[in-house]
Amino acid sequence: MYQLISRSEQQVSPRGTTTFEGAPFGGQVSFFLMDSPPGHGPDLHRHPYSETWVVRSGEAEFTVGGETTRAGAGDILVVGPNIPHRFVNVGQGSLDMICIHASDHIIQENL
Q: Phi and psi (nearest 5°) for 7?
């Protein structure tokens, strides 16, 4: 069995983020597809599961547990459960990134 969610069925936010939660489709992961402008990023938050980011293009600055690092095209960053984190697009152009949540639905505690 499989589920196809065509591009025309996906909801995209005004800032270019597509949100997918696996639960309604029998999937065990959720994710954000980011296509964010310079300066955009979420406030500090955490999840009760790990999160993995795949930077496809652009550059992001991540704050994870009080440490700061940068990641660019082709880089992968993983943060463990319950660790406060945030990121911001620090590049000149769009940040194309996949934010993978190890859960069938997104649980986020804003800090």
A: -55, -35
Task: Identify each DSSP E strand in 1-111 by its residue range.
Answer: 18-21, 30-36, 45-46, 51-57, 59-64, 67-72, 76-79, 85-89, 95-101, 109-110
Residue 32 lies in a domain: yes
Q: What is the pLDDT of residues 30-70, one digit of tens each?
A: 999 999 999 999 999 999 999 999 999 999 999 999 999 99
Which CATH number belongs to the domain containing residue 37 in this structure?
Answer: 2.60.120.10
pTM of the model: 0.92
Q: Is residue 18 part of a domain?
A: no
